[in-house]
Amino acid sequence: MNEKVTSPKMSRLASRILHDKNATPTEKSLAGSVLSQAARGRETSPELRQMASSVMHGSEYSHDAKSLAGSVLAQA
């Protein structure tokens, strides 16, 4: 079982992204994953880990997207 949980700071960022009509589908997927991991015991899926890894290595992604991706990978 995963004992790691999302920090309040990352939860706020994820919530803001989910409410942002200009956020990309990738950002929204990462934000959803971050929020779903606010409780203990949630695991990151292999698909989300791959997406987060791609975001971390992509120069076209925003700082917020990379922050969310980092949180997703830290929860893996």
In words, what does this structure look like?
By secondary structure, the chain is mostly helical. It has one domain. It is 64% helix and 0% strand. Helix 1 (8-19) packs across helix 4, helix 2 runs parallel beside helix 4 and helix 3 packs antiparallel against helix 4. The radius of gyration is 11 Å and the shape is globular. The model has no long low-confidence stretch (mean pLDDT 90).
Key features of this structure:
single chain; 76 residues; mainly alpha; 4 helices; globular
Order of helices and strands: HHHH
Terminus-to-terminus distance: 11 Å
- Helical run tally: 4
Overall geometry = globular
Number of distinct beta strands: 0
Strand content: under 5%
How does the SSE layout of this entry go?
Blueprint: H1 8-19, H2 25-36, H3 46-57, H4 63-75
Helix pairs in contact: 1-2, 1-4, 2-4, 3-4
